[in-house]
Amino acid sequence: MTSLEHSSENAAVSSLSQSAPDRQQARAAAQLLVAGLVSGLALHVLVWDRAGGSLGWFLSMMIFVACSVFLNLNEHREWRRRQWAWFAVMLVSVGMTVIRDALEVRLLMVFVMLLALGMMFYQSLGYSLTHATLIRVFGLALRMPLRMLGGVVGAVETLIQTRWHGLGQMQAIIRGLLLAMPLLLIFVGLFASADAVFSAWLDNLGDIMNALAPQTPLISFALTMVATGVLSCSVRKSECVDLPRAELQVRLPSLGREETAVLLGSLATLFVIFVVLQLSWLFGGQDLIQSRGGLTLAEYARRGFFELVVVAGLTLAVLMSVSAMQGHRGLLRVLGGIMIACVLVMLVSALHRLHLYIDQFGLTMDRLMALALALWLAFALLWFGGTVLRGRQKGFIVGLLLSGITISVLLALMNPAQRVAQVNIEHAQSRAQPLDVDYLISLGADAIVPLLSSAEGVKLTQEQSISVHEQLAFQTDNTDWRDWNRSRARAVQLLIDE
Fold this sequence. Notes:
There is one protein chain. The chain has 498 residues and is an all-alpha fold. It has three domains: 229 residues, no CATH class; 158 residues, no CATH class; 77 residues, no CATH class. 79% of the residues lie in helices and 0% in strands. It is built from 22 helices and no strands. The N terminus is likely disordered. InterPro entries: DUF4153 (IPR025291). Pfam families: DUF4153.
């Protein structure tokens, strides 16, 4: 073989080895864009301009999961197993919005879904949840929108480079447009809010654009871009991470022995004084409360519950911050343990106040949601004491996340709005007191079901019946299967049977 033939053969092999990754990248980019198109169209058809918490939402999530599974078919089994764990959380959270109608539950489940998506993105970059730190998690959460934009831009750019090699100028133009569009939207919104003349001109321009181009394709395009960006965050980055690990190592100011002693020592002293001074009547009866605090039992029950829950949350934040700032370990262990013990006593007191409040006034959604938060904070403080205070950082963050998700899902399963209605109905009947029907109606179909149930024996006035009809008007006038919700459908059926 001559040297010329040998060099030609090497050049051919080199060309093949370089073109193979290009074709693979182009195929991956095309698959991402197609999956984003399918998921975006599903969002438009099943979710856009539909009732919140309906069957369309769940079906749209199933399509998103199917698209993400398709994009990760060639990844390692371990990654796909982790993915399915988060998919299960997302499907359960969206599924709960289909069987519940309370706004608080729906917002909580949306938060759980976004949390699961964020954790999937975190693990897709090669980070382990077991060794997760709060700073790194927040840092990646702030970078996720940029990753979504980069996923769309990268897929389009890859296709252009592999399919149309000679259109370098067009590549730059498209890349510039993709980068400029979100900034233009932000600045246009700010200018429209700042100046009435510009806002009026923008409205006129919008009318002209609506006359020239239909709105539906624009909505589909926007939703497709969002879906593509989110899907790009669910694909495992096997080779490299565009967010270097070094960038996520934020250097916080460190706390020495003196700073730790003053900060935690003063707080621990205050907590001990508060608990000791009020321990005798924090759990006292009506006579002791009136004699020591000058309060009626009703006034005592109203005060303090939310404040003590906030104290627990701030305490957890302070202890986590001191730990992240490398505070003195010995002092953190001792003083942090004292603070946790005092806060747990305060949380027990808060639960006692809640019990007295229910006995006097009934239950509200605000207090029930705060109760769930208090239980999570109690676990978080105990978990902090069992891990970080013992020098075991590993697993602390993932424990917080999993416990928060668990409590949120259990709360949704409990049907809090229905529980509030049942407690208040029983309270009104047992004490022969008027029932705040208007408040229960405002909670949605979950609370309306007990009101309409014949077993409860609640008699609605004409005005209240009108309010119930108005609350369920959308469901009664709409027969679209995409808007089906189990709780609303059940309330409508009870309304028809009356």
